[in-house]
Write a structure and sequence with these properties.
single chain; mainly beta; nine-stranded antiparallel beta sheet; six-stranded mixed beta sheet; PhoX; TAT_signal; PhoX family phosphatase
């Protein structure tokens, strides 16, 4: 039985011990609307009433049986198409891709490596067209051990040649490709003038409070307002004015030199810099050597805004959104017109953030969104045991965020976002990944992928399991009402634990999926999520391989009798993760990135799968897959 979306949903921890009756819960009888807190969680309110839920699930497809194989698999009645692969040409006149011969200059004109976040941007701009548009795809990192023959992951930083290093610079970043649906299959328009790559070599603008700050200035850019490139682009978001946000998720291992000798050693340490230089960039490019350019690291770990409809527009690093290992930047237009951006910092014991713009967005004037993300308030989440969550503003001069405590101005608060969040008592989470908003209910879902480092002494109300190897999903309930009535700018929310992941048959795990969850339906290590137009949650996983299971995509109802009941739709090939799920506006296509196939191989010659081409002598190729029903109806219906 679902609660009203406008009222708090109980976190059912030790309900019996708390002696709260079913009638009291239904009447909202908890004092001040507070939620119950304790040490355990049950995934549905009244399990005895929901065992018929499997038949009541809104997900109509026959569940896929888990397949962990050399190739991918989809549920019966569905078809898949490989839309874009690493190396596919994005300009006319390029030769057929050869993974053993691609040059760095040519890679700038080819689809990038290790695809991640996907945004489908309809064509023409401003339409809701679902059969023609732009795919905007992050290319997070490279996997040298399955790109270059004989190379291992551990020796890449020391043995990669300059040409290989430069290929890596060109293969990371972001790809924009025009795609069209014909006869039920998606394909790239290779000669589209809108196709382009944004790489670690692309010039970008720095905007917002940190632009021009002394800690952003380098020998190549004395103004502190221009940056060359982006890296580790993980998840992202789409703005109402038609731009894409791509997130830089931690660049600490891309720099050489000795961070302990840098003037900002404490800040570098808090952001994980150790001089490891895993791709050898610092051996050939001074900007990636902290000894030579100590401020260059400060110019990364931001959210980057891209206009995919204008190939001449420079990407912009929006510093008002904070500096962290950005996993997501999900955009919501609040009912008062202000823009809200939800963000996770994907690392152990890191935090969840929210940005609220100072000014509203005028939908009748899309140009009003141009610099809207440069002015607003960044906050960090604190979860309390009474089931309330508070957004704590990261504003210079408030509380401990003063010059006396190491924050000279607002720019330093943003440069040192993690340190600022530490100072004001945010809740350390189990690696916050994607955060998305249900378009039907207005509730917000935040993914905690896992945290093997949490021990019993560090358990907190929102992260209840020590050595959490399985992950969980937190449900945030803004006040104000259902759907667009929800107030995403409020200082306090209610919250719930939507599901604790893992094998429900293993009592030690403490998983809390719906009791009707099948042996194929439960999952571990949720990573990226999305919602279809009907408000159903779709979860892509990253880490199931550690349990000798395939990563894949699961549909889950969030409301009604089948709340918390997952069903498996798709599985990845060996060694790959599923990421970046994205629907067309009509819900008939689910795009998905299949990242790093066979990455678990020590070297390329030991790869268990050469997916998707299966050509001897050629490496596996990370790719974007389109999943559709064979009858053309919406996915999951």
């Amino acid at each position: 039985m679902a609660n009203s979306p406008s009222s708090p949903s109980p976190v059912i921890r030790d309900v019996i011990a708390a002696r709260v009756s079913r009638r009291e819960l239904l009447k909202g009888g908890l004092a001040s609307g507070a939620l119950i807190a304790g040490s355990s969680f049950v995934g549905s309110l009244f399990a005895g009433e929901t065992h018929a839920a499997a038949a009541l699930s809104t997900l109509g497809f026959p569940e896929l049986k888990r397949v962990y194989d050399k190739t991918h698999a989809a549920a019966e009645g569905y078809q898949t198409t490989i839309v874009a692969r690493w190396g596919d040409p994005l300009a006319a006149g390029l030769s057929e891709f050869d993974g053993n011969k691609v040059a760095s200059e040519e890679q700038e004109k080819r689809f990038g490596y290790n695809c991640d976040y996907i945004a489908f941007m309809p064509l023409p701009k401003g339409s809701v067209n679902s059969d023609h548009g732009l795919l905007c795809v992050n290319n997070e990192y490279i996997s040298p051990n399955v790109m270059f023959p004989g190379m291992t992951e551990d020796d890449a930083g020391k043995t990669m040649t300059k040409e290989q290093v430069d290929l890596g610079l060109a293969a990371m970043g972001h790809s924009i490709v025009e795609v069209i649906l014909k006869d039920g299959k998606w394909s790239i328009i290779e000669d589209s003038p809108l196709n382009r790559r944004i790489t670690a070599n692309t010039e970008m603008v720095v905007s917002g409070p940190v632009a021009g700050h002394a800690l952003m200035q380098t020998s190549a850019d004395a103004t502190g307002s221009k940056v060359l490139g982006t890296s580790y682009n993980c998840s992202g978001g789409v703005t109402p004015w038609g731009t894409v946000l791509t997130c830089e998720e931690g660049v600490s291992d891309l720099f050489g030199g000795d961070p302990k000798k840098a003037p900002t050693a404490d800040m570098l340490d808090r952001y994980g810099f150790d001089g490891s230089d895993i791709y050898g960039r610092g051996r050939f490019h001074d900007r990636f050597n902290i000894d030579k350019e100590p401020n260059e690291p400060n110019r990364f770990d931001w959210v980057v805004e891209i206009d995919p409809y204008d190939p001449q527009a420079k990407p912009v690093k929006r510093t008002a959104l904070g500096r962290m290992s950005h996993e997501a930047s999900t955009v919501v237009r609040n009912k008062d017109g202000r823009i809200v951006v939800y963000m996770g910092d994907d690392d152990y014991f890191e935090y969840m953030y929210r940005f609220v713009s100072a000014k509203p967005y005028d939908a009748a004037n899309p140009a009003s969104g141009k610099d809207l993300l440069d002015d607003g308030v960044l906050s960090v989440a604190r979860f309390d045991a009474d089931g309330t969550m508070s957004w704590l503003p990261l504003v210079h001069g408030q509380g401990k965020l003063t010059a006396e405590n190491g924050f000279a101005d607002q720019a330093e608060v943003l440069l040192k976002t993690r340190l600022a969040a530490d100072a004001i008592g945010a809740t350390p989470m189990d690696r916050p990944e994607d955060i998305e908003t249900n378009p039907v209910t207005g509730r917000v879902y935040a993914v905690m992928t896992k945290n093997k480092k949490r021990d019993e002494s560090k358990v907190n109300p929102a992260n209840t399991r020590p050595e959490n190897l399985w992950g969980h999903i937190v449900e945030l309930i803004p006040p104000g009402g259902h759907s667009t009535d929800a107030d995403h700018t409020a200082d306090k929310y209610a919250w719930d634990l939507f599901v604790l992941c893992g094998n429900p048959k293993d009592a030690k795990v403490g998983a809390t999926f719906h009791p009707d969850t099948s042996d194929n339906g439960w999952f571990v290590c949720p990573d990226n999520i999305t919602f279809d137009p009907a408000g159903r949650l779709w979860v892509a996983t990253d880490g199931a391989n550690d349990f000798d299971l395939p990563d894949g995509v699961y549909g889950v109802d969030t409301e009604g009798a089948a709340r918390g009941l997952p069903k498996l739709l798709f599985t990845c090939p060996h060694g790959a993760e599923a990421t970046g799920p994205c629907f067309t506006p009509d819900g008939t296509t689910l795009f998905l990135s299949v990242q790093h196939p066979s990455e678990d191989a020590e070297t390329l010659d030991k790869a268990q799968s050469l997916w998707p081409d299966f050509k001897d002598g050629q490496p596996p190729r990370p790719s974007v897959v389109a999943i559709r029903r064979k009858d053309g109806q919406p996915v999951g219906a």
